[in-house]
Write a structure and sequence with these properties.
Layout: H1 2-117, H2 126-129, H3 135-143, H4 145-202, E1 210-211, E2 217-218, E3 229-232, H5 238-248, H6 252-255, E4 259-262, E5 273-284, E6 288-304, E7 309-326, H7 344-352, E8 354-356, E9 363-366, H8 368-371, E10 381-390, E11 420-431, E12 452-457, H9 461-470
Parallel strand pairs: 7-8
Antiparallel strand pairs: 1-10, 2-10, 3-9, 4-5, 5-6, 6-7, 10-11, 11-12
Helix pairs in contact: 1-3, 1-4, 1-5
Length: 474
């Protein structure tokens, strides 16, 4: 009985062993199929990951390139604004120089004439007798030895110093104009070099990337049919003149140096009198600054005629001074229309004393189209650029990667639809004042204030379509 059981057990064990051998062979075949599928999935995931990384890097590089170009645009506009403000300050300095020279010459002649014409070294001077209360202390001060000496020294020092200042200002003006012209001429090639440098810096030791030589949109060179900025000279310097006069007239000494001292007596008493101090500086046309200062005594005399009476005015010139800076294009007109000159001697001096001056400078401002933009839609400078990267440089299995599938696995490469990867980015330069104005008014875009900023914006559908239509590297 035991023998039968043993034989049955051996037969059962043999059958199980043979069945186990058959099951082991089936698992091997399944494993081979699973391994092949895993390799396919691995290559697919590898290429997908590499393509995603390539796309992200190319988009980030395009953003960096577009933003760098935008920063250059904003800096160029702000540079033009800073140099324009420097040119305006230069003009104000010239106006102050001619004003000071005219004023010191006036003070000097006034101090020379006051003792003899106004008797201001005596107790009973003409200003006292005529009750010109405001003028009395001025007359006595200028007639004193200390006042006369000081006035003479000032006149001898201020004149040459002011002339030297105007000459230095002329040199500074030429340098600022040259800097603006150089900026406008070199920006486009410098921008191309910068974009190339930024793109290469993002792909160090990682193949190459191409920046299109022709941007998709470039408002700096073409904004509504013309460049975004333009150089203004000749009769086009009106905006610069207006801005310069506004800045210069903030100094009341330049704008007007006038006051009057009157006694308000009636003419019939025979002692009506008035002291007039007149002075100011004006910009004549575009090419000449002129300053004039005068002082004169006006007395009225009651005269009885055969059939009428009259109150006649008599003028006594006391002090005078004038100074000009120009290039002679405005002729001999003193520019004051007689309103600031009370004697012919001052007018003669004004026409004979003029420093060499080239006139208001040429300057850069926004184009006519940009200046005409409505307040609710200020002008912006858009710039769109496309970057491309060759398929062979991408770190995929069919590109520069060391992982190279062969045989049937090669069918699972990334299979790009084009020979290049492309990315497009757009920057926008806009004008915005950092804080509100004190007068509550809106600051309009111009090249007189350095408030130009840059940010990235969404690329327009037209630029995207153009980028697709370009195909390979341009």
């Amino acid at each position: 009985m035991k023998g039968v059981k043993a034989r049955a057990l051996r037969r059962t064990s043999g059958a199980r062993f043979r069945a186990g051998l058959r099951q082991t062979g089936q698992a091997l075949i399944f494993g081979l199929f699973a391994l092949a599928g895993g390799l396919v999935a691995l290559f697919f995931l590898f290429n997908t990951g590499q393509l995603t990384a390539e796309k992200t890097k190319l988009v980030n590089t395009a953003d960096a390139v577009a933003y760098s170009a935008g920063v250059m645009h904003a800096r160029a506009l702000n540079f033009a604004a800073y140099t324009n403000r420097a040119l305006i300050a230069n003009e104000v300095l010239i106006a102050q120089a001619v004003s000071m020279t005219s004023w010191t010459h006036y003070v000097s002649t006034h101090a020379q004439n006051a003792p003899t014409l106004m008797w201001c070294r005596t107790q009973y001077s003409r200003p006292v007798a005529l009750v010109l209360i405001t003028y009395v202390p001025v007359c006595y001060l200028l007639s004193s030895p200390y006042g006369a000496t000081t006035a003479q020294v000032l006149n001898q020092v201020v004149g040459p110093a002011s002339q030297a200042t105007v000459a230095a200002s002329e040199l500074a003006k030429q340098a600022l104009q040259a800097a603006q012209a150089n900026m406008a001429a070199t920006l486009v090639p410098a921008r191309a070099a910068l974009m190339r440098e930024v793109a290469d810096a993002n792909y160090v030791d990682d193949g190459s990337v191409h920046v299109d030589s022709i941007p998709l949109t470039d408002n700096f060179t073409l904004f509504q049919g013309a460049p975004f900025i333009k150089r203004n000279s000749g009769a086009d310097r009106g905006r610069f003149k207006q801005t310069t006069l506004t800045a210069a007239n903030l100094d009341q000494f330049i704008q007007e140096r006038s006051w009057t001292s009157s006694n308000f007596f009636p003419c019939i008493l025979g002692n009506k009198a008035e002291f007039r101090r007149r002075g100011g500086t004006e910009l004549i046309g575009f090419d000449e600054w002129r300053a004039m200062d005068t002082a004169s005594l006006h007395e009225w005399e009651w005269n009885i005629h055969l059939f009428s009476t009259s109150c006649d005015e008599n003028e006594t010139p006391i002090g005078y001074g004038a100074q000009g800076a120009g290039n002679g294009r405005n002729g001999g007109d003193n520019g004051f229309g007689g309103s600031r000159s009370d004697n012919s001697e001052a007018s003669s001096y004004a026409s004979s004393s003029t420093w060499q001056y080239s006139g208001l400078p040429s300057f850069f401002d926004l184009s006519d189209a940009a200046l005409k933009a409505p307040q609710d839609s200020p002008p912006v400078l858009r710039f769109s650029i496309r970057l491309t990267r060759a398929k062979d440089d991408a770190r995929t299995s069919e590109g520069s990667s060391n992982v190279k599938p062969s045989g049937r696995l090669a069918r699972f490469d990334s299979n790009l639809a084009s020979d290049v990867l492309a990315a497009v980015s757009t920057s926008e330069v806009f004008f915005r004042r950092p804080g509100p104005r004190s007068d509550g008014r809106t600051e309009l875009a111009s090249l007189f204030n350095p408030y130009w900023q840059v940010h990235l914006v969404a690329t327009s559908s037209a630029d995207i379509a153009q980028a697709i239509a370009r195909g390979g590297a341009q």
